Each structure stands twice: as structure tokens, then as C-alpha cells.
């Protein structure tokens, strides 16, 4: 390799020695190709792929947790933008990561395709003649018997065939080989790797994935505007390619462990849906469960999570209803202490906002308000309220899970910050005649994911073939064995020798066994 | 027996197994220490003479075994078998107590994975006379179990809904057994490096410690290491690249999501693919390949422990 490099350096420099052939563009390309498709390069690329994948597990990833990425950018003012430039927030889609696996892919194709021809030739080839000096081989035995040469060779051939060798007779010797399938397995492995990679690439080009939170009783139609977040491959047209199904979440039931050390752990989730695969299709129902997704026109709907949505009515100081309905609260712990906000920006004379917790099984003691069980055994709303001056509508999108308190003032009561607890059906009149809030009841919401990953079955088939090929490649031992006889002083001298092509695996034992069979022949 | 009796039985069996493994570890330590102390004047001459020969397969091991080392080794192996029985019973009762497969959290995965290490070792012990690996294997198992009992313990209980899938059974058992193979393979590779170095020095006339003379030739150790890896790698491929994504597809709605655990499983896979390539690449086979195997084992270990403790993701088990 260094030799070639030197030659290139010499060839391209103006005062290069004239006796060296100039490589030229073609030569240079050929050299690059040969380097790229060498196994050493594959090895190096494999290690680079492994190393390259690591930062993605240490640094928050946009595709996995966009909120963490935002947090990271917030706290690391210098490092953040640098990471961003290097693509470290989206490692697996970054240019450099793609470059590594594309090179590996090309290297793989370049090294497998030519070997196919070599393999086909090898499959048709006959076991070779014995080398001159059998005793130089890794496995070697020699002994004399009384049988004549032909009998010995016949016995040896029978035994070798029994051991599934392919046998070829030569003058006074036989050559035998087995394990042709090992190379086939190896090729199958590498080919299937290509197939699997194509399947994966196909999926990431043409696939999509989105999540949406749907409150029980509400419906969802599969269009881009309905999603809370959505990603799709570059070849997917999200405006037109989404299958036009619609669904309604009619009910959601969760059961939880009632006792024992894991009390409160979730046991079953079930979301009862009705859906229409197309706008004018028939309405059907489905029980959506974890590990039991709904398949619709190539897309799949999953149940990812659930939570509570308290139903609240807010009346303002003028007696008008300023907010009414369920507001999804987000679970903060395993017992579903759920945080959320209620906004009534249209309330007059002051706007109103509330934030706090919905506790499905409330316990309020010295540890503070919290839920002690995930099911709704003792639901309670524990909140605080704010008021502010009516603001111009800015049109800026705002999170429905956060209250912008910069222009709001917290209500006070008896000189203390206002804090209130409501059970279903209870109301609170706000101080200063600002209005009232009523806890009407609650319902649940489910988080659904809709996705389409084409090519998944191609990838799966590739992986399964890959394993089969791998096993053939790793467990089949290719081996050559030779038996040669010559007559000396009326007795037959037998030489048995063999060669493991690949890691050595007890060839001595096998030769010994073959030798024994030949010697037994003598006693009969 | 009801589930809480089974659970407390398991809680008794696992620490007991840990203690027995630890005693086995002590026995193997004595074995190696005894090997180091054997007077080795006479043998050195033989070895220096033999060192020049082309193949040092099975050198003078058989001729001058240190009796004490041999006894200690045998005690270690017997204790390991006893500990394995206790360990297996502990894992079994844990599973029965929880009414499911015993690998739903870090504690359970630790006790099951270390059982897999012990199983791979004992099977290989029978087929390949692997007792020379006893020190390393008992060290790893006792360490893992100790960590599980002291740091990861959670009471037995049922699983989260996303873990209810027979793909979980397949995925984790394949990964655990492959992990057992990687562990035994990594230890063998480490011993290979030590022995190969001693053999190289022996050809330069430096004496080989008797403890090392007791273990097989480097080439034989290398063959064992390869065999275990060749067994573990397809299993790992199946466990983390087929069964895992299928399960994730049903449970989380995506086959592959670059979750830290997934990333590190892939890194592990790539490193071991590198190992197999290294063995077929001139200039890499032997010493460098062995280093790759050891690196692979550390990556596996990090994936198993580090990722759960240090990095967050979907795979963060409940209850740790
Ligand atoms: C992601 C990539 C790859 C993986 C996981 C992989 C895996 C493997 C495995 C497991 C073996 C069997 C080793 C053995 O028989 O001991 C092997 C052999 C081989 N690989 Fe790859 N490979 C990959 C890429 C490549 C590439 C890109 C090339 C070509 C440049 C390549 C060339 C070879 C060759 C020539 C062998 C034959 C070794 C032999 O027959 O002993 N591999 N590969």
C-alpha cells in the first residue's frame, strides 16, 4: 500500500522519476476504488461508524427529545451553536454520519459483487491435487498397512464421502474438500446487509411519523395541521400523501396494580376507538392497546400514553363564560400528579389564568399536595389563579401547557397567595369579583402516534437472511483433506493430511479418525 | 408456595449464590497464587529449549502441575457449579414470584445475565476444559451479583404494559446469552494476550511463570475465544437487530429510534463485526483482534450498566 502511495506522489510531482508509470486519473480512481473496497477500509469504516454513533447517545437529539435540545441550547450559549453547526443535535441525519455509512455501503457493494464471480467459480471447481509435501500441512499422519493401494483409497474415499467431502481421484491419491457453503453464507450475509440497508433507507425517505394528544370524546383526522409534532422523510409529501382516515376516541380505561410492592404500576391500557379508513368508508371500532396498534392503509396508529383532562368552567367578572371544557394536564410522576394550565384571555374586566395540579388520588399533608395512586380514587384540583390586563392578540403561538406569567399578577387572599382545592362539582368565587372557576369533572386523554415506515419488511427480511448467512459463514468449516498412498517393500504407506481454511478446528482429530478407518480396513 | 414466599426465597438464594461465587473466586485466586510460587528452575530449561520450536501447543503443563493449584482449581469449579445451582434457583423463584420472565428491570437483568455468563462458562467448561478461565468468570459473576444485590435491588412485581410481549422474552434472553458469550470471550481474549506475551518472552529466553504454564497455549485460547464470539455474535444480531426492533415496533410505534440503548447495542454489534473482520485481516489477527474483543466487551458492559445509569431514554427501566 505504501508502495502505491509513493508511486502516486512520484507520479504527480513535476520532477518524478521517469521510469515510474504515471497513474493518471483512471489509475488513481482504480487505486481509490481498490482501497475503498479492501477489508481494512471496511474495518476502519466500521469503527468510524461505531464512534460516530456515540455522540448521538450523549447529546440530546432533535429527533428523540426536541425539548432537551432547546434546554441545551439555552444553557450552553457557546457550545450549543457549535454543536448545531457540527450536526450533533441530529447526528444520525448529519452529513458526516451519512458519509461514513455511504462509504461503507459502497465499500460493501464493491467488495461483495466481485466476490460473487470468484465464489461461483470456486463452487464448480474440483478438490485440488495434493501438494508435494503433505507433511508440511497443519494436520498430517502417516502409517503403513498391508492392504493394497486401491483398497486403501477406496476405503478413504468412502469415509471422506461419509464425512460429506467432495472427492476427486488423482493418480495414487485423492483430494477432498468440503464447506463450500461457508463462502456462500458469507456472501449471503453481506448481500443481505445491503438489502437491509436499502430497506431502512427506503423507510426514512418515504416514511412519516407524528404524534397527537386526543381527549376522550374528541376526534382526529389524519392531516398535517392536527398533529402536535410531525416528521417525515424528504420524499414524503405531507400535504397530499397522508391517508385520509379519521378516528374518534370514545373511551379510555387503565387498570393499575392495587396492592403489593408495585402498587400503582400500570397493568392494562385500552382506548376504544371508532374509525373510518376513508371519509366515506364504513365506521368500524377497535380496541387500541399497547403492543396492539391499529393498521390503516399503510399507516399504523399506536397508543403511546395517557393522562387526565379536568373539565373546568371559568366565568369572568361580567358573568360570561370565558373558558369551558377539558384541558389536558401532563402527568409529572408515576401516580399521575398532573400539571396543567387553564387560560381565559377573553375574560373581562381582567383576563384570567390558572395553573396547578390535577391529582387523581389526592393526598395533601406535610409533603405537599400529590397523587398517591394513578387511578381516579379521590380526584382533586389544586391550583392557583392569576389576573392581568387584557392584551392585544399577538398571534404568536403559545404552549397550551404553560402560562406566560410575565404580565400576570397572582390573586391574593387574606394577604396570602391564593391557593384553592376543588373536588368535582365544586366552585370557587375569585377575589375582587373577578369571576369564578368550577371543576365540572374530568375525562382522560390519550397520546397517539401515527406513522408509516415503508421498507420495514424488506429490512426485516434482509436481517433474517443476514443471520442465516452469518451462521453458515461462522459455523461451516471449510477443509481440504488429501490421502496419498505409495507401495514400499510390499506394504502400503498411507499419508493423510489436511488443511483448515479458516480458524483451525480440531483437524488432527478428524485425520486420526480417518486413519483409524483405513487401518481397520486392514484387519477385516 | 405463594408469590411472596417465592420472592423471599429468591432473596435468600441470590445473596447465598453471591457468597459461594465469591468463595469460588478465592479458590481460583489461590490457584493462580500457588502457580506463581512453584519453584521453576528445572522447568525453565525445558521451556527455553522448547521455546524455539515452532508450535508451543500444550507445553509442559501436564508434566509438572502444581498440586495445590490443581486442587484449588477443582475446588473453585465445584463451588462454581454449586453457586450456579443456587443462582439458577434464585432466578427461577424470582420469575415465579413475579409471574413472568425474570428480566423486567435492572436487578433482574443483572441476575439473569450473570446466570447466562455462568451457563456459557459451565457448558464450555465441559466441552473445552475451560477451568483456566475460572478466576475471571467468577470475578465477573460475583461482581455483577454483588452490585445487583446491593445497588439495583427492587422487590418482585409485574411489568409495565409496554413490557408485555413475548418479543421481550426473545429479545432479552438472546441479548443475555450473547452477553454471557461476550463476557467469556472477552476474558479468554484477555488471557490470550497475557499468555501470548509470555510465550513471546519465552522465546527470548525469559522464564514463563508456572501459573501461566498451566493454561493452554495462546493459539488454543485464541481458538476458544473465537468459538465463543462466533456463537454470541449471531445471537446478538438476532437479539438486538431483529427481536428488539420488532418489539419496539409494537410497543413504541417505531422499530428503531436511536434511543441511547439502541445506539450502544448497535455500537456493540459494529465492534464485534470489526472483531470478526479483524480476525480475517492480515496484520490484525491475533493481538489486535483480541484487543477489539476486549473493547467490545467494555462497550457491551457500558450498554448494560452505564446507559441505564447515566443516559436517559425509553429503555430506562422502572424501579431503578
Ligand atoms: C457493516 C459492515 C460489515 C459487517 C457487519 C461484516 C461482517 C462480516 C463477518 C461477520 C464476516 C465473517 C468473518 C469470518 O468469517 O471470520 C465477514 C467477512 C468478510 N467481510 Fe465483512 N462485513 C461488513 C462489511 C464488509 C465490507 C464493507 C467489506 C468489504 C470491503 C467486507 C469484507 C469481508 C470479507 C472479504 C470477509 C471474508 C473473510 C473471510 O472469509 O474469512 N465486509 N464480514
Describe the structure.
The complex is a heterodimer of chains A (524) and B (320). With 524 residues, chain A is an alpha+beta fold. Chain A folds into four domains: 111 residues; 86 residues, TATA-Binding Protein, CATH 3.30.310; 120 residues, no CATH class; 124 residues, no CATH class. Chain A is built from eleven helices and 26 strands. In chain A, β23 and β24 form a beta hairpin. In chain A, α3 packs antiparallel against α7. The longest helix of chain A is centred in the N-terminal third of the chain and has 30 residues. The radius of gyration of chain A is 37 Å and the shape is elongated. The N terminus of chain A is likely disordered. Chain B has 320 residues and is an all-alpha fold. Chain B has two domains: 131 residues; 144 residues, no CATH class. Chain B is 75% helix and 0% strand. Chain B is flat, with a radius of gyration of 21 Å. Chain B is built from ten helices and no strands. The interface between A and B is large, with 55 and 55 residues. The complex binds protoporphyrin IX containing FE. Protoporphyrin IX containing FE sits at the interface of chains A and B. Protoporphyrin IX containing FE (HEM) sits at the interface of chains A and B.
* Unreliable stretches of chain A: 1-19
Question: How far is it from the N-terminal to the C-terminal residue of chain B, by CA?
Answer: 28 Å
* Number of structurally distinct domains of chain B: 2
* Strand percent estimate of chain B: under 5%
User: Helical stretch count of chain A?
Assistant: 11
Radius of gyration of chain A: 37 Å
Number of domains as seen in the coordinates of chain A: 4
Report low-confidence residues of chain B grouped into runs of 5 or more.
38-64, 313-320
Question: Which short descriptors sum up this protein?
Answer:
heterodimer; A: 524 residues; alpha+beta; TATA-Binding Protein; 7-stranded antiparallel sheet; 6-stranded antiparallel sheet; 11 helices; 32% helix; elongated; disordered N terminus; B: 320 residues; 2 domains; 0% strand; binds protoporphyrin IX containing FE; transmembrane helix (chain B); heme binding (chain B); C-type cytochrome biogenesis protein CcsB (chain B); transmembrane (chain B); Cyt_c_biogenesis_CcsA/CcmC (chain B)
Amino acid at each position: 500500500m505504501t508502495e502505491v502511495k509513493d508511486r502516486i506522489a512520484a507520479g504527480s510531482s513535476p520532477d518524478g522519476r521517469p521510469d515510474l508509470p504515471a497513474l493518471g486519473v483512471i489509475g488513481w480512481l482504480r487505486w481509490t476504488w481498490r482501497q475503498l473496497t479492501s477489508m481494512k477500509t471496511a474495518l476502519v469504516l466500521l469503527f468510524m461508524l461505531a464512534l460516530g454513533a456515540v455522540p448521538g447517545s450523549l447529546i440530546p437529539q432533535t429527533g428523540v427529545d426536541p425539548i432537551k435540545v432547546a434546554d441545551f441550547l439555552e444553557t450552553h450559549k457557546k457550545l450549543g451553536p457549535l454543536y448545531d453547526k457540527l450536526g450533533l443535535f441530529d447526528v444520525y441525519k448529519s452529513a458526516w454520519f451519512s458519509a461514513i455509512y455511504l462509504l461503507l455501503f459502497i465499500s460493501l457493494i464493491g467488495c461483495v459483487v466481485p466476490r460473487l464471480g470468484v465464489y461461483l467459480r470456486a463452487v464448480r471447481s474440483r478438490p485440488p491435487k495434493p501438494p508435494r509435501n503433505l507433511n508440511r500441512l497443519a494436520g498430517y499422519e502417516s502409517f503403513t498397512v498391508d492392504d493394497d493401494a486401491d483398497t486403501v483409497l477406496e476405503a478413504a474415499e468412502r469415509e471422506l464421502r461419509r464425512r460429506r467431502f467432495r472427492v476427486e481421484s488423482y493418480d495414487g491419491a485423492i483430494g477432498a474438500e468440503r464447506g463450500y457453503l461457508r463462502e456462500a453464507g458469507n456472501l449471503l450475509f453481506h448481500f443481505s446487509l445491503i438489502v437491509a440497508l436499502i430497506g431502512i433507507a427506503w423507510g426514512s425517505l418515504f416514511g412519516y411519523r407524528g404524534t397527537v394528544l386526543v381527549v376522550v370524546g374528541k376526534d382526529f383526522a389524519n392531516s398535517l395541521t392536527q398533529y402536535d409534532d410531525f416528521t417525515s422523510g424528504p420524499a414524503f409529501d405531507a400535504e397530499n400523501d397522508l391517508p385520509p382516515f379519521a378516528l374518534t376516541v370514545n373511551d379510555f380505561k387503565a387498570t393499575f396494580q392495587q396492592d403489593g410492592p408495585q402498587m400503582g404500576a400500570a397493568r392494562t391500557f385500552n382506548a376504544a376507538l371508532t374509525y373510518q379508513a376513508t371519509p366515506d368508508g364504513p365506521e368500524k371500532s377497535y380496541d387500541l392497546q399497547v403492543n396492539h396498534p391499529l393498521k390503516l392503509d399503510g399507516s399504523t396508529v399506536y397508543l403511546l400514553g395517557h393522562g387526565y383532562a379536568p373539565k373546568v368552567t371559568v366565568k369572568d367578572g361580567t358573568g360570561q363564560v370565558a373558558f369551558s371544557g377539558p384541558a389536558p394536564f401532563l402527568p409529572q410522576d408515576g401516580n399521575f400528579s398532573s400539571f396543567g394550565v387553564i387560560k381565559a384571555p377573553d375574560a373581562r374586566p381582567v383576563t384570567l389564568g390558572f395553573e396547578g395540579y390535577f391529582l387523581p388520588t389526592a393526598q395533601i399533608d406535610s409533603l405537599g399536595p400529590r397523587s398517591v395512586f394513578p387511578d381516579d380514587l379521590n380526584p382533586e384540583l389544586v391550583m392557583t389563579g392569576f389576573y392581568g390586563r387584557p392584551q392585544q392578540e399577538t398571534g404568536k403561538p403559545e404552549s397550551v401547557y404553560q402560562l406566560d406569567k410575565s404580565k400576570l399578577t397572582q390573586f391574593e387572599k387574606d394577604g396570602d397567595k391564593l391557593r384553592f382545592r376543588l373536588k368535582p362539582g365544586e366552585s370557587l368565587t375569585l377575589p375582587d369579583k373577578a369571576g369564578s372557576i368550577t371543576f365540572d369533572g374530568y375525562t382522560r386523554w390519550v397520546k397517539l402516534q401515527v406513522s408509516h415506515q415503508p421498507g420495514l419488511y424488506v429490512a426485516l427480511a434482509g436481517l433474517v437472511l443476514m443471520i442465516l448467512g452469518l451462521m453458515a459463514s461462522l459455523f461451516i468449516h471449510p477443509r481440504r483433506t488429501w490421502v496419498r498412498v505409495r507401495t514400499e517393500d510390499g506394504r502400503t504407506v498411507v499419508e493423510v493430511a489436511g488443511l483448515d481454511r479458516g480458524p483451525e478446528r480440531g483437524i488432527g482429530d478428524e485425520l486420526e479418525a480417518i486413519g483409524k478407518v483405513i487401518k481397520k480396513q486392514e484387519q477385516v | 408456595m405463594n408469590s411472596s414466599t417465592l420472592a423471599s426465597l429468591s432473596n435468600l438464594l441470590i445473596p447465598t449464590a453471591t457468597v459461594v461465587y465469591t468463595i469460588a473466586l478465592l479458590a481460583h485466586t489461590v490457584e493462580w497464587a500457588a502457580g506463581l510460587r512453584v519453584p521453576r528452575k528445572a522447568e525453565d530449561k525445558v521451556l527455553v529449549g522448547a521455546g524455539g520450536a515452532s508450535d508451543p501447543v500444550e507445553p509442559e503443563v501436564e508434566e509438572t502441575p502444581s498440586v495445590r493449584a490443581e486442587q484449588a482449581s477443582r475446588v473453585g469449579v465445584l463451588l462454581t457449579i454449586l453457586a450456579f445451582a443456587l443462582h439458577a434457583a434464585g432466578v427461577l423463584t424470582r420469575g415465579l414470584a413475579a409471574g413472568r420472565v425474570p428480566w423486567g428491570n435492572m436487578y433482574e437483568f443483572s441476575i439473569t445475565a450473570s446466570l447466562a455468563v455462568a451457563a456459557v462458562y459451565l457448558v464450555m467448561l465441559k466441552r473445552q476444559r475451560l477451568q483456566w478461565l475460572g478466576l475471571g468468570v467468577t470475578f465477573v459473576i460475583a461482581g455483577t451479583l454483588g452490585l445487583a444485590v446491593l445497588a439495583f435491588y427492587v422487590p418482585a412485581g409485574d411489568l409495565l404494559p409496554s413490557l408485555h410481549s413475548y418479543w421481550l422474552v426473545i429479545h432479552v434472553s438472546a441479548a443475555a446469552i450473547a452477553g454471557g458469550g461476550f463476557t467469556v470471550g472477552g476474558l479468554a481474549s484477555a488471557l490470550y494476550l497475557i499468555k501470548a506475551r509470555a510465550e513471546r518472552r519465552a522465546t527470548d529466553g525469559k522464564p514463563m511463570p508456572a501459573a501461566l504454564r498451566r493454561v493452554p497455549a495462546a493459539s488454543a485460547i485464541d481458538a476458544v475465544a473465537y468459538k465463543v464470539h462466533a456463537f454470541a455474535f449471531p445471537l446478538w444480531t438476532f437479539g438486538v437487530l431483529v427481536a428488539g426492533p420488532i418489539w419496539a415496533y409494537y410497543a413504541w410505534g417505531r422499530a428503531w429510534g436511536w434511543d441511547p440503548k439502541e445506539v450502544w447495542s448497535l455500537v456493540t454489534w459494529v465492534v464485534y463485526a470489526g472483531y470478526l473482520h479483524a480476525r480475517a485481516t492480515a496484520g490484525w489477527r491475533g493481538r489486535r483482534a483480541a484487543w477489539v474483543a476486549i473493547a467490545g466487551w467494555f462497550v457491551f458492559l457500558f450498554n448494560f450498566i452505564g446507559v441505564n445509569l447515566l443516559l436517559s431514554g425509553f429503555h430506562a427501566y422502572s424501579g431503578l
